[in-house]
Amino acid sequence: MKITRQAFTTAQGRNFQVTYWTLTGTRPGPVLTIIAGQHGMEHTGPCLLPEFAAELADRDFAGTVHICPCANPLALEMDYEFYPEREDLSKIKDYYYSRFRHNFCPWGLGRSDAKTMYNMNRLWNRTGDFGVAGQITAWLWQEIAGQANIILDLHCHQARKPLIFNSEPKNLPIARYAGIEAVVMTNPDPEDWSKGNLTWQGSRRHNSYAICFEFSVQHALGEFEYEFGKQAIRNIMVGANMLPGEVVLSRPVWVIPFNPAADQNAVLKSNHTGHIRYCKNLYDWVKKGEKIYEIRDLQTVELLEEGFATRDGIMAGIAHQPIMTPEIRPCYVARAQELAPAGKILPKLPANFFA
Minimal CA–CA distance to 106: which of 130, 131, 88? Predict the structure, then answer.
């Protein structure tokens, strides 16, 4: 395993380095690049990738694998989304994370406040001076991402299960292997800020494919998903003919189309404040009229409200808050198409898939 490190210096003079590993197989094959740790509160990818790299170093595989576990080490050190190198860093002491103020930013630069260029995952393949985060993305793009055949960008969100974000239909033959139950299609033509996303940029070339893994916990160690994440990567390598074996999924994989206007009408809205209990699991198939949640009063514990599926589809968008209020949307039922069945061997990619 070859180790490559690059030194960087922040605007306030702090020196640090970023590391990636290169593992070369015994036979020709695709180039797979895996990057994690772009956002500092997302620790599952950075923690599972060293384990995966150590495992892969002892295996016979085809192709080349580049792994950068901690692309943004100073943000990871702060347990905050980005590293605001030109700001008053002492303000991090005013910050604490709560599910009830998920988007709070002590610098007033949260996603609901501004489209900050401190956000590393808006800087890929972008020209200009965007500080140390832009220097890191420029280096990694040149070194391991810009010419990769497959890019896996590992992140974390707040949900009960992982999902995949994907902007291009051409990535679906690869995304299905991971076994992550929902592939959520995103805007294929986003505004300029979002076009700096690694997976959008990584899907521009005809023979490159890029998807975003979103594990299910931020600001914490998601040890319970480490093996799941490693198996998802193994499955993709098997499907791409880089590792031997077959891919058989235990749960079906669904594609949720990008159609935000249509789904606005399917979002359920709570009318009360209280504890919520869901009657279905995330990504379960439900039928119109089925009961999917209930809300109980915090003082009397009486049943205040029941929610019912507005159409046939899969359970999606389950809120991460334990207390519902009229301002929070509990969930919605998404129209979805089955991308990969459970219990059947999935066909592998054709030999000329990356030609």
Answer: 88
Residue 293 φ/ψ region, left for φ over 0, alpha for ψ in the -120 to 50 degree band, beta for the rest: beta
Mean pLDDT of 272-296: 97
Name the nearest CA neighbour of 131 among 82, 92, 195, 78: 82
- CATH number for the domain whose boundaries are 2-257: 3.40.630.10
Q: What percent of the chain shows pLDDT beyond 90?
A: 90
Give the pairing type, strands 323-324 and 313-316.
Answer: unpaired
Interval 153-198: pLDDT, tens? 999 998 999 999 999 999 999 999 999 999 999 999 999 999 999 9
Per domain, the residue ranges of the chain are 2-257, 260-334
Specify the CATH number of the domain 260-334.
Answer: 2.40.50.100
Segment (H or E) for 122: none
**Measured distance CA(223)–CA(76) in Å, rounded:** 17
The answer to whether the pTM exceeds 0.90 is: yes
How far, in Å, CA of 230 to CA of 123, rounded? Answer: 27
Residues 121, 39: contact at Cβ < 8 Å? Answer: yes
Q: What is the pLDDT of residue 99?
A: 76
Identical fold, 2-257 and 260-334: no
DSSP conformation letters of 65-84:
EEEES-S-HHHHHHTSSS--
Which tokens go with 249? 């999924």
| pLDDT score, position 214 | 98
